[in-house]
Amino acid sequence: MTAYHDTLTRRKLLQTGACGVGISAGFLTVGIQPALAAKMPQSAVSYQDKPKGGKRCSTCSLFVAPHSCVSVAGTISPNGYCVLWKAR
Prior knowledge:
By secondary structure, the chain is mainly α. The chain has 2 domains: 10-38; 40-88, High-Potential Iron-Sulfur Protein, Chain A (Irregular). The protein is built from 2 helices and 2 strands. The protein has helices at 10-30, 32-36; strands at residues 63-64, 68-69. The protein has a two-stranded antiparallel ribbon with strand order 1-2. A hairpin with a 3-residue loop joins strand 1 and strand 2 (68-69).
């Protein structure tokens, strides 16, 4: 039996690399990136409209005044809390 060996030439390597770059750029321009930025529902992050200890939305780095969040959908109370809370 003879084994088939495909030789990797410099030309093939450059063509494959250029193809990979083109495909990656295509995904970014088509809109794959905005899909990653979708907000999560309040129920998925255990949102509550009262603080938990000293943790409240108004002191979270994800909170957008007056009533919004970078990561959570819907109206967000400055006094609320969810499991995504991160100190500013």
